[in-house]
Amino acid sequence: MSGTAPAAGSEDASEGLPNSSGGFPYRLIATDLDGTLLRSDESVSQRTRDALAAATAAGAAHIVVTGRAAPYTRHILDDLGYDGLAVCAQGAQVYDAGEHRLLTAVTLDRQLAGVALAKIEAEVGPLFLAASRAGLDGEVMVGPGYAVTGALPSTPFTDASDLWAAPLNKIYIQHPDLSDDELAEAARQAAGGFVSVAMAGEGIVELLPLGLSKSTGLSLAARRLGLKAADTIAFGDMPNDIPMFAWAARGVAMANAHEELKAVADEVTSSNEEDGIAVVLERLLG
User: Fold this and answer.
1) pTM of the entire structure?
2) Where are the alpha helices (DSSP H) in the chain?
3) What's the pLDDT tens digit per position in 129-151?
4) Could you tell me if 116 and 176 are in contact, meaning their C-beta atoms sit under 8 angstroms apart?
5) N or C terminus of the chain with fewer C-beta within 10 Å?
């Protein structure tokens, strides 16, 4: 699976899209990973692989856009044979999968994050915390009470000072009583002037550098390929994909998507377990 840019001369300059012989109306396909491109076992079906291959053969580029930081994305992309650009850590990192290196990286201001946490806890009470350290080998630090979702490896900490000991790209928060939606809204209300807040999955509410979103990283990655928002179709499943949908020309939510994302999507396709990306790409390929 390749994320290679379209070949020169494959577009109609008057439209900014592939010419009719290419048979595909977008030059860029942006896909979330979990709940979107990946099935629950972290595999990608052969049907979806074939549809993406056909779209890239028709002149489109494919960029993976995920909330996962690069260290927790790298093995998946390697297994897929993906050698293009990936936007990781909710837009904080642009990762070159073919060269295994970070092209851009944004870190969380730890002083502002500390203020944000204090403001949130003043409103809702104590939080359970985890954090993703910056860099290509950054680990996830998990504090007492924080329930890790999925099978991502993590390192426990008990001393709060360990949380701030190295640069971070995000902090994860959980609450003993509030739902994810309630916690995300409370965090925005209490600390929205200090950090951005994203809800990326069940049990995954994140504090990010202020102003950062998937659209931030996607726009940077697209620019490296000479592409823009008007060229883009995006696929996702969670509220953290809303900025990406707002940026792209077309946003497609999976059947399993959060209702907030479905509400702003241009289209709802089948679930990630039922080849929802392939269903749309095959139709567009005609």
Assistant:
1) 0.89
2) 46-57, 74-80, 110-124, 160-163, 180-191, 214-224, 242-247, 259-264, 276-285
3) 999 999 999 999 999 999 987 66
4) no
5) C
